[in-house]
Amino acid sequence: MPNDQNKLTSGLAVVDLSLQKVEFCTASIGAIVVFFMMLAGAAEIFLRSLFNSPIPGYLEAVEISIVAFAVLPISYCYQRDGHLKMDLIVRRSSGRRMWIYKTFATATALAFILFILPYVFDFYRNSLVLGDSTMNMEWPIWPSKLAAVVGLSVFAMRLAIDLVASLRMLAVPNATEIALPKQADPLKEAID
Asked: What is the model's pLDDT at position 174?
């Protein structure tokens, strides 16, 4: 049994580190999109105010790009214990009870993501096949729908890893935590 536990632990660690690289890439893409949208927003204000000449298609570009910076970084934020979950009950519990709550919450989130993911993929596929585009500039919409598929798929992988790690901790509560979001201390964050 200890040998099986070691294999599970090392396997979880390897999968977790690999997924962290993917999460960093998707979050970086989201950050780059935000940066360029901020530049475009500043240029839009500047051109509209000084020259009464707005950037054509700016609002459509914002609408298309929102998915990239809203969905792509979700898994990265979750892995860093960002503000994605309401864990008041979990933070006030300990031992097996805490792991029961965490396992239930993670399983529920994973079930929801796996339920909606096929529909999100269908929206992407339909947009690609039908040539769906924005109204004014007629830019294709499928890249933003693909970003939703990618972001939710990465998040589903993170939740699956989290579920296995939570089940491991439920079985052996005194084991070392591996492949789980690092819980931040609110008091320490407030001081820093």
From this structure: 85
CA distance between the termini of the chain? 42
Residue 188 in this model has a pLDDT that exceeds 70? no
Place of tokens 């580190």: 17
What stretches of 52-94 show up as alpha helix (H) in DSSP? 58-71, 74-79, 88-91
Sequence-distant (≥ 6) Cβ neighbours of residue 129 within 8 angstroms: none
Q: Taking Cα atoms as reference points, which of 151, 185, 147 lies closest to residue 75?
A: 151
The per-residue DSSP string of 101-114 comes to HHHHHHHHHHHHHH
Residues 174, 167, 79, 84, CA torsion sign: negative
Question: In the predicted model, is pLDDT for residue 56 greater than 80?
Answer: yes
Q: Where are the domains of the chain?
A: 2-185
On whether the CB atoms of residues 164 and 61 are closer than 8 A, the answer is no
| Residue 4: both structure tokens together | 């099986």
